[in-house]
Amino acid sequence: MTQWSGYFGLILQGALVTIELTLMGSVLALFMAFLAGMGRLSRFFVLRALATAYIEFFRGTSIFVQLFWAYFVLPFIGISLTPLQAGVLALGLNVGAYAAEVVRGAIQSIGREQYEACTALNLGRWQGMRHVILPQALLVMLPTFGNNAIELLKATAVVSLISLTDLTFQAQVVRSQTGNTLVPFATILIIYFVLALLISWGVRSLERRMARGLDGVRA
Amino acid sequence: MSASAPIIKIDGISKSFGSFKVLDGLSMQVMPGEKLALIGPSGSGKTTILRILMTLERIDGGHIQIDGEQLYHMERNGQLLPADERHLTRMRQKIGMVFQLFNLFPHKCVMDNVTLAPMLTKGTPRAAAEKRAMELLEMVGMADKAKNMPAQLSGGQKQRVAIARALALSPKIMLFDEVTSALDPELVEEVMNVMRKLAAETDMTMLLVTHEMGFAHDFADRVLFFDRGKIVEEGKPDEIFRHPKQERTQGFLKKIIAAGHRV
Ligand SMILES: Nc1ncnc2c1ncn2[C@@H]1O[C@H](COP(=O)(O)OP(=O)(O)OP(=O)(O)O)[C@@H](O)[C@H]1O
Ligand SMILES: [Mg+2]
User: What is this structure's pTM?
Assistant: First the structure.
């Protein structure tokens, strides 16, 4: 039974790849979410149209197909990505499209009176957005962002299809080498679950911290 | 500009919400330093007038001059063009507003609520902005709460902070829309006291919308009684409150007294 430790090592390496993908994908998703979410609220038609097209397209097509495009089709137009780059790109753009709607909704949930206070204090549109609206909207976005990040974590499994050695890929390696199905897949099930718990917990504590900031006295 | 030119000159403005015409060719003038009270029944357009002056609502027709300059128009080569955002930004520097529901920024402490706009819009350095904010907070009796978050303040305290926040930009004109009507009765007086002091100590032009007739009487140099978007009667507080000439003014004041407001 000594060989199991080696196989667990493989799965642990896979976990690191999955974590890396999740973190990098989340950063891209966050960036796209703010870009497209605020784009949808822009005064400029072109920006609104671009943002809407991006959101609808990436929500309306499958993450599998998006990943295959990023990895197999982009090289035909001269863009060759490593499996990791392709994975981050597809995951980030896909989840970013969902999160963009979260950003838009949160910004719109901030009451009209806050915008009017900005006007009465003569803040510019961007100043009001940056200093008044977004800080409040962030608190509204946070819980759903947590869900989005967990969705992203779960979606990372698709990158095993372009032979990126993530958790799911390594579990398949272990299964084919040992002939045992239950142990590797039970292991990654637990690891995915623990990672998701970590995300929930992290987001919740961030949320609590920010909500506490609305109360109390500033140091 | 001579000292006797009006600081606000409203010239035949109209405003509709959908098919409902709130203002129809309203004209009025306010002299620099004047303290004006706008009274009248609910829905008569008082708030709408203040919101139009604060550029929170656009007018459908007519002209407004603030401090000798068009508010919603720009003069270019002798022509009047619709104002762009830059023009509005410049004009808004002359005007501040305090809202019925305070509209403080809940994620910023009292001090930051007051310093945010001067730092962003005038480039005031933080130290100078905080010094000025402290003076204003002292004036409204909120200096000891400078580091508190708005959620910890009573309504009256919030409103006093909101007044300091608007004053921090040193506007020439201040607009107050029913600033005490959302407050518990025992907190009304503290806000009124701040405003009485403000009226007595500054030469700012002030427009006050209120249902508190006693307060309007003390505060104002001139009272305008509105009904259905029109000025029905205007005059010195004593004239309007003691000897109203128009039947509609008399009826309104009677109703208000019957409702338990003091005059
Ligand atoms: N955004 C809006 N959309 C539609 N109708 C509006 C809007 N704002 C105001 N109105 C209507 O315009 C009329 C005048 O409103 P306004 O708020 O100016 O009255 P007011 O004199 O301030 O009344 P109150 O004493 O109740 O505050 C009212 O009939 C109101 O319902
Ligand atoms: Mg009103």
Answer: 0.89
